[in-house]
Amino acid sequence: MQLTAHPLQRVGAYAVAALAGVKDRRRSPESLSAEEIEVARDRMTADVVATAELVDTKAPRSFWLSASYLLWPNSKMNPTNRKSLSIAQRRDQIKQWRECPTSVLAVPCVLCGQAACGFYGKVDIPLAASIEHRNTTVPGHDGMALCVGCLTSFYALPYGCSIRGGKAAGLHSWDDDVLAKMTVRQVLRTQQQAQLASTDASAGAYSREVEALRALRTYEHRIRAGVELYVFSNSNKQQTLDVHSIEQPLAEWLRATLQPATLGTGFRYLIRAHHTPKTAGSVRLAYNAFHRPERLAGTAVSYLARLTDALGAPAPETIELAGLYQSFIREVLDVPQREVDQIVQLGDRIGELLRKHPQRGTLKEFEHVHSEPVRLQAWLKRQATAWTLSHDVSEALVTTEQWRLLFEPGDRVRFHRDLLFVSVLEHLAKTGWLAGTPADRDDQDDTILVEENQ
Ligand SMILES: [Zn+2]
Predict the structure, then answer these.
(1) 285 and 422 assigned to the same domain
(2) How far is the CA of 36 from the centre of ligand 1 (A)?
(3) Which domain covers residue 171, as residue numbers?
(4) SS3 state of residue 143
(5) Would you say residue 453 lies in a domain?
(6) Residue ranges near ligand 1 (ion) with Cβ within 5 Å
(7) In whole angstroms, what is the distance from residue 251 CA to residue 126 CA?
(8) Share of the chain above pLDDT 70, in %
(9) What is the mean predicted confidence (pLDDT) over 142-156?
(10) Cα separation, 175 vs 183, whole angstroms
(11) 232 pairs with which residues across the strands?
């Protein structure tokens, strides 16, 4: 068996390894022996053959029969005349369908180049890449030439996917270690799900994104490539494929931020920041991670602004969230440390100025001017006078570089200005200008991203 350039084949190949009982995670699916692949095939065949006894998809433990309509429509598992067939007939037909092909064709496998064992279409393989690359084949064409290894990978793919709500979702990464760990984890979960008497067919809002974040959370090492969430259905009614990606820097930042060790501090506050009366913080965080990553940091900033506004002082969450914001713009947006330091230095200076007038209105005024660049420029110019009166004249309040970072048009100025705001709050929080207790907001925490028995 080979690992090819096809992400879903790769997920399937690692699922084959898991089904073969390979314990050593560092072992590549390419090292699987023919016997091990046979073990995996037998397990899968047993699962699909067992569906022959079920009356229909409402019967207990009908997970694979239900799933067959979205995975393998028109296959021997779900023929239109299924009801009129005896259990033995169904069994025989399913076995026949899944029998390991012994033929060797004169054409190479389209994915790995080894000798193909047959041509396969929609019945056996899900969408290849996008709606433009449908796996349905034109009449008279035999489909995709596949070898036994690639075909077996596609049969195993569903085990490496979360299947609910009429769709399958597989997590892929070009980092083989990440792919191995996540697929093994998912194979176990899918097998557990298949054992349940009844399976919850519904999928909560963005539950696939939430599950993907949970999976990232349990990975202990640095993630060296991005992760992609493939959500697909091969169903006759609605054939779809959606790919949601997280680039490597964000994937690694989320993994490190979401680690169980840091849970309870910054990450807990990040969930709070995403909380709304209608949506759990974890769900909104997972949505942003996959669909609107630029909003992740902004949500933390506007949360701090709202709290500060309500309290008239920096909230107790400030220091942790400021730390997260800084690491986000450094690691995800690749803002150089030197530039971060420059803005933090200015934030400290502004904090120092504000502390001279520790009234509620002082911070409110700064918040007001911060939200509008022209107002902020005017405010900084006014404060420069106060600054030079109380400091060494040679040391300006705002350096040319700082001014450029904050106001020169570019993709990052918004993040730089938010960093300035957060740094001011952080300075005030560190020097004791604090209000409220975090406990006041415990009701905004949720544990959706935390699972037992990880
Ligand atoms: Zn192949």
Answers:
(1) yes
(2) 17
(3) 7-249
(4) coil
(5) no
(6) 109, 111-112, 147, 150
(7) 26
(8) 91
(9) 91
(10) 12
(11) 168, 241
Q: Which amino acid is at 428?
A: L
What's the 146 CA to ligand 1 centre distance in angstroms? 5
Q: Indicate if 286 and 198 belong to the same structural domain.
A: no
What is the whole-number distance in angstroms between the Cα of residue 298 and the centre of ligand 1?
Answer: 45
| Average pLDDT value for residue range 161-186 | 94
334 and 203, same structural domain?
A: no
Boundary of a domain, candidates 210, 227, 249: 249
**Model confidence pLDDT, tens digit, residues 54-107:** 999 999 999 999 999 999 988 999 999 999 999 999 999 999 999 988 888 899
What whole-number distance in Å separates Cα of residue 325 and Cα of residue 266? 10
Tokens for 102? 């012994």
Same domain, 345 and 365: yes
Task: Please report the pLDDT score of residue 442 as a whole number.
Answer: 75
Report the C-alpha gap between 263 and 410 in whole angstroms.
34
Name the residue with higher pLDDT: 135 or 283: 283
CA of 4 to the centre of ligand 1 (A): 8
Please give the backbone phi and psi of residue 329, each rounded to the nearest 5 degrees, phi first.
Answer: -75, -25
Q: Enumerate long-range contacts of 29-38, CB under 8 Å, 24 or more apart.
A: 29/1, 29/3, 29/153, 30/1, 30/2, 30/3, 32/1, 37/1, 37/148, 37/149, 37/152, 38/100
Structure tokens that stand for 188 in this block: 């176990």
Distance 142 CA to ligand 1 centre (A): 16
pLDDT at 191: 95
Domain total for the chain?
A: 2
Ligand 1 centroid, distance to 224 Cα (angstroms):
26
Q: For residue 256, tell me if it sits in a domain.
A: no
234 Cα to the center of ligand 1, angstroms? 21
Read off the pTM.
Answer: 0.89
Query: Six-digit token pair at 164?
Result: 């609910």
Cα–ligand 1 centroid distance for 181 (angstroms)? 23
Contacting residues for 267 by C-beta, under 8 A, at least 6 apart: 257, 258, 324
Which amino acid, one-letter code, is at 197?
A
What distance in angstroms lies between residue 226's CA and the mean position of ligand 1's atoms?
24
**How far is the centre of ligand 1, averaged over its atoms, from the C-alpha of 128 (Å)?**
14
Q: Quick check: 149 and 1 in contact, CB under 8 A? A: yes
The answer, yes or no, to whether residue 392 has pLDDT greater than 70, is: no
Confidence class for position 364, pLDDT limits 50, 70, 90: confident
Mean pLDDT (the chain, rounded)? 88
CA of 17 to the centre of ligand 1 (A): 16
